[in-house]
Records
---
Amino acid sequence: MSQTIFERYGGFAKVRRVVSTFYDYVLDDEVMAPYFTGVDMRRQIDHQSKFISAVMGGPGSYSDDHLQRVHAHLGIDHEAFRVMSSLLREAMEDHDMAPADVEAVMHQIAIREHVVVTA
């Protein structure tokens, strides 16, 4: 039986470290930082860790309807989505994830662009 990406990297603890690094980059980015003004980042990291875990084959799932609903008020455009994707890729690479695993996660992110981008 093959392992999921989530299992291969040790589960939620590793994902949380990747996501924490990702948000360090996000908060330093002039395009992305404004989206997180006034956001409880501990809660945000927890939510995003759960989402990325699910994308990696871990527990949980997120429907397109759910993702659209939670992002609808943010006015995210394609440029912000591109920057976010780039920062997530960088965080995964910085945590020594294999290129094929990074690509698999990025594919799962890319196929959700149409529900996250609202502007």
Note: The chain has a mean pLDDT of 95.
---
Amino acid sequence: MSCGACCASFRVSFYWAETTDATANGVPAELTEKVSALRCAMRGTAEDPLRCIALRGNVGVQVHCTIYERRSSTCREFAVAWAQGQSNEICDSARLRHGLTPLPNPHIVTTST
């Protein structure tokens, strides 16, 4: 991966039962913090500067999620711009926050002269 802007731009909160406190292959509970009686968040995503504790590497250069196979539904459901044929303003705003340009629409063909 060469982006990771979303992992360093937004609070990642989700239902507590997605953690290892409730399911063996869930998000490691020790990487989360309680947000409410039913929700938790990835450590580092409710702070300033914001950065998920599971993110390794340099945003916009080379990154990876250390718990990718066990990531929360919030992360699984986040659609990178154009991944499903649609733009995503939230993805674009995260990229801009880190000095990256929005991802181009791969369906627009440009010609050079």
Note: Helices lie at 73-77, 89-97.
---
Amino acid sequence: MAGKAAGLGAAVALATVNPQSTIAAAADIVVAIPAAAKESSGGAVTAQPMGSLFEQSLLLLLDALILELMREEGTDAAAMLGRHANLE
């Protein structure tokens, strides 16, 4: 999918525990998250099952990114809610 998106001219950003992966080589920007993943990748050691530590780290990273984008755009949570897709 990343290759297809790049082929169509999209920029590809990746957050990963493995910055040497095949998809990382194709990405325009790579953010390495030093957290344990499902498989042993030489990352952090944790008692949490499977990819939980990576998923929690990714949540914090993306929340911080959204907050920074909101600050740069001068928008607030109410404006974000108004644009949020409702699938219920």
Note: The domain at 2-83 is CATH 3.40.50.10490 (Rossmann fold).
---
Amino acid sequence: MNDKLFKFKLVDSPCCTFGKTNEESLEHLLFFCKKTEFFWKEVVSWLGILKNERVDFSLIDVLFGKFDLDEDFIVINHILLLAKFYIYGSKLDNTKPSLEVFKAKLKATLNTEFVIAKRNGKLAQYYKKWESFISVLV
């Protein structure tokens, strides 16, 4: 990713924004970078505690979504999307991804969706989607 921006003279270096060590590819940025890898470990640990079960994300899950879920399919994939967006924002801000900051952004999303669901008379769907997470994020 950065290597293409570097060729167009839009960034100073083709290396990883966080670690400044490797060439930055999409896979590296979203999964293999040490800073991102630590962030995913925190997210997986947090989700495992919330769900009281083992949670794991592979590179394929991060890139394309988690499809082997029987429950919480929509909310887990929504969290994956938000996490990738957060990692990319951290790259642009040149800040290290943090679970606490991510949880604050997730809470803001939860609150926004609540307002929209309330306005549209769809609170039942909102509560069904977010039921596992409302108590820890509100």
Note: The mean pLDDT is 86.
